[in-house]
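Example 3.2
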Amino acid sequence: MKPFEVSSSLAGISDRYPPAERLKSVSRQSEFRDRVAIARQWLSEGIPYAFQECPAIYESMRTWLGWKLGVVAKDISLVGSARLGSSLAPYKLGAPFGRSSDLDLFAVSEGLFQCISSDFFRWNSDFRNGHILPRHPTEEGYWIENKLRGRSQISRGFLDLKMIPTFGGYDSKNLHDTMWQAREKLIVSKVAPKFRKVSLRCYCSWGSFERQSSRNLLAT
């Protein structure tokens, strides 16, 4: 009987919340399957760092979100510094989670992904044809950038809700409202973490999440 194999790059990681710099370093020396293991074990499962003092609040939040979004609660999770305790983003690698940090939530749902993707392409067409206009030059700059970023994201099996405006009569307006409500509910919840804002990314499958997480781990 052969024992279960553990790669040498992962064997030394036993921390519940390993430093972001360490995960980055290990990832650069690892194969894709090891980066997928990191994505599963440390970037999507377990009690997030931000909720370590109040795990029941985290579970209550994602149960409520699951009901509102029509997604199984287990398919809703949290990434970023709120998950690990420090940021993996290249421009702020190792920055600790704090009051100015975001809660970067994600949901895995093919149906939800198709819904917001349809809204994105509808908005894209409306913007191109002048049926919807940005309210100021700064917003116009974001919209032009989002047109490219959104298409790139969809091709990789995910999309950020922020790619679609909160106005214009799109179905995803309800999703924006839900995330606002989630933020307000957390603010008034006792012992919940302090944070800046709440965001939502939707993946069409767990495979898409793992591939993008592997890519993020290698980003410099």
